[in-house]
Amino acid sequence: MRVLAVASECFPLVKTGGLADVVGALPGALAPQGIAVTTLIPGYPAVLAAIERPRPVLSLPELFGGPARLLRATHAGLDLLLLDAPHLFARAGNPYLAPDGAAWADNGLRFAALSAAAAMVATGAAKGLAFEAVHAHDWQAGLVGAYLRHVHASALPLVFTIHNLAFQGQYPASLFPALGLPPAAFGIEGVEYFGQVGFLKAGLWFADRITTVSPTYAMEIRTAAGGMGLDGLLRGRGGAVSGILNGIDDAEWNPATDAHLAARFDARDPAPRALNKAELQARFGLAAEPAAPLFLFVGRLAWQKGVDLVLDALPALLGEGGQLAILGTGEAALEARCRDAAAAHHGRVGTVIGFDEALARLGYGGADAVLVPSRFEPCGLAQLCALRYGALPVVARVGGLADTVIDANEAALAAGSGTGVQFAPATAEALTAAILRTTGLYRDAPAWAQVQRNALAGDVSWRRSAARYAALLHGISHG
């Protein structure tokens, strides 16, 4: 079965978050299931620079203000189509943000072009390319269904995956005339959303099947509290909505082979983690104390991710003799708070502002525990990486965090099944209690070792989830 995947980013070519990891890993996971995926992404400068010998497969003399072409290439085992449209994508840096940090003013047009090109190639515009289904990811590919149904009159099966409902791609109605869609598409049964053009809403409306990245998040987004205005539509889609848990590429994320670690290890012998811990302490300017429980926060410094809760709970963490390493970038006020915490607690708190995957990997391989106190979390990858590398995740009981971490409560400890610590609600008080539970577990060396073994032995790969995606894709392609 041949499937066209459409997304705005794909690891290892371009990444701003977990979307890229999923888009990059899923084709390889689906291949053993008999599904061949071709992935269409924008031809950003960094992407085009990394590609060797791309082959033009379709020329588009005019695409929303300028010429474009589709290039085909392979890279890192991926079969790729690149939308080379310099007037839309020839911009260095972040794919979505201008140098001043604001979203590009023409993002609506840029990603409408991605969707329009996807619909063209999906319906046979490029010679030699034929597909049996389309898999569109997040709002940037939200208009694929509108172009398929309204421009090409195509019933080609469409799966739409929500990676984060908070990002919806809403633009003024004045954008609509430029999209090349017929007037009938601008309505409640189309792209219109509260008088605006809603990219994510359109994706949900036109898809044959809607997936999101964990079963719990699939339930949460169908409630008023978690639906962010789209819960009614999602409830109305009924059985078309499902949650399929994300995984990680366990060959790429492997502590036994990871060159970014100071010392490699595996589940049979996690002792070398101590060397990674020492290196991590040195890299973050923390005191060289092997016995101190070392907590790590890695991710976006944003309200959603709850780093403010970590800082509010800091007195308890430090009071237990703990250390904290913070790695991430995001909101200026939160970045400042993280820097201030490091300055105020020299040797106990270390902050590195920026995106550094090598340092993140060292963090997972050396920290004792990883804090993931998200207020909402569709799936989350930090806790999966933590489990894979034997750092116990301390997670809010939301979304995919609830689905992937087994709370090491008394019953779980007695049964030998815990893999981390859960807490609820997502407040500083509840996180404080979870930190105290974690440090108590840390001081119980046999119990800690058992939970760590459980974490390392767990399966966080794509294998089970790929089988679910394959069943869904095969199912819709056969009606």
Automatic annotation (TrEMBL):
Top-level taxon in the UniProt lineage: Bacteria
* Pathway recorded for this protein: Glycan biosynthesis; glycogen biosynthesis
Protein EC: 2.4.1.21
Q: Where does ADP-alpha-D-glucose bind?
A: K15
Q: Per UniProt, what is one GO molecular function of this protein? A: alpha-1,4-glucan glucosyltransferase (ADP-glucose donor) activity
- Occurrences of domain Starch synthase catalytic (ranges): 2-235
Record's keyword terms, sorted: Glycogen biosynthesis, Glycosyltransferase, Transferase
Q: Which Pfam families match?
A: Glyco_trans_1_4, Glyco_transf_5
Quote the catalytic activity from the record: [(1->4)-alpha-D-glucosyl](n) + ADP-alpha-D-glucose = [(1->4)-alpha-D-glucosyl](n+1) + ADP + H(+)
Instruction: Give the UniProt family note.
Output: Belongs to the glycosyltransferase 1 family. Bacterial/plant glycogen synthase subfamily.
What the entry lists under NCBIfam families is as follows: glgA, PRK00654.1-2
The task this protein performs is described as:
Synthesizes alpha-1,4-glucan chains using ADP-glucose.
Q: What is the name of this protein?
A: Glycogen synthase
Q: What gene does the UniProt entry assign to this protein?
A: glgA
